[in-house]
Every structure is written in structure tokens, then in C-alpha cells.
Write a structure and sequence with these properties.
Strand content: 35-45%
Number of strands: 12
Radius of gyration: 19 Å
Order of helices and strands: HEEEEEHEHHEEEEEE
Strand order of the largest sheet: 3-2-6-9-10-5-4
Structural class: mainly beta
Helix content: 10-25%
Number of helices: 4
């Protein structure tokens, strides 16, 4: 019987040995809630899906998400003063798919959204959304971490919709464990 110290690790503790495809494959196996971030810009409404959303702090109320430096929305995000993060319900898979397409298709249907009095686009029929001002932008690796200070919370979960989840390249809904 060998001790745990005799076991060879699967890969060395050296980040140079981690390929992008291997890292991506591992991260696909971690489930995440699906959000859509929207913001106003000089050229019109901007929006993108973000599965990296997190709550950071209760006091003050801070949130975060990441945006890739290669995203078509990065310049607008870096210039934005405020944004809205929509927590999608399982009935909104069509929105997650729409906002994963080319930018010109995202807001093409005016029946799907309107603007808040503060100017940000807000998607209709979203169970929960939060409006936030941009608190910090932190470039890290090939992404920027966006930290937002929450200024408004919309919660319309009376019908108790299930959240939309993203896992292993597909959309899912959670199931209760008995």
C-alpha cells in the first residue's frame, strides 16, 4: 500500500502545463447561473451573457462579473457608469441564446426590453435584476473583473421561477434533491 505522498500528481503544479482547452474543459463541469448584463452606450443598448456573476459584499452591496478583453462589448463596458444584471429564469433560455449571438441581434426585438428612467436597457419578464454603478474595473489575465455597487433591486419571484443554469455547454434547470 502506498502513501498519498507516493502518488504522482495528474499534472505538475506549473501553470505552463495547463492548456486553454484543458482548463476550459474542466470549467465546463462547474455549473453557473446565467445572467445578462445590459448597459447604455453612445451607440445604443449593449448586452452580453455572463456566467461569472457573484455577490461580493453585503455592506456595501457589491456584485462582480468578468468580461473578456475580446468581447464585442468590452469598450462599452469600460466606458459605462452603470449597468443592469438580469438573473434569468429557466423560461428565458431564448434570451441567453439571443445574447450569445452577434451584437446586432441582441436588442433587435423591441418587445423584449425597455429602458429604465436612468437609461439602462432592462429585459422584460426577468424574475430578478439589479442595477449597479460601476465601482471598480480590474484587468486580470485576458478578462476584466467588473465590480458594481448595487443601487436598485427588482424582485418579481412571486411565481418562484427556477433559475437558468449553464453546465457542460448546455442550459439546465435545477431539480430538488430529496
Amino acid at each position: 500500500m502506498s502513501s498519498s505522498s507516493d502518488v504522482e500528481p495528474e499534472s505538475p503544479d506549473d501553470p505552463s502545463g495547463i492548456t486553454a482547452s484543458r482548463y476550459r474543459a474542466a470549467m465546463r463541469r462547474y455549473p453557473a447561473g446565467v445572467t445578462i448584463v445590459t448597459l447604455g452606450s453612445e451607440t445604443g443598448p449593449i448586452g452580453f451573457t455572463a456566467t461569472s456573476f457573484a455577490s461580493l459584499s453585503l455592506d456595501p452591496p457589491l456584485i462582480s462579473f468578468n468580461i473578456a478583453h475580446t468581447s464585442s462589448s468590452i469598450e462599452a463596458m469600460l466606458a459605462a457608469e452603470s449597468l443592469v444584471v438580469h438573473f434569468l429564469g429557466d423560461h428565458q433560455r431564448h434570451l441567453a441564446q439571443r445574447f450569445s449571438r452577434t451584437a446586432d441581434e441582441r436588442f433587435a426585438d423591441p418587445q423584449l426590453w425597455t429602458r429604465l428612467d436612468t437609461g439602462e436597457p432592462v429585459l422584460h419578464d426577468t424574475p430578478i435584476w439589479v442595477r449597479a454603478t460601476v465601482y471598480r474595473l480590474i484587468p486580470v489575465g485576458d478578462h476584466t473583473v467588473v465590480v458594481g455597487l448595487v443601487t436598485r433591486v427588482h424582485d418579481d419571484t412571486d411565481a418562484d421561477p427556477a433559475p437558468l443554469l449553464y453546465y457542460n455547454g448546455g442550459y439546465h434547470r435545477p431539480h430538488d434533491l430529496d
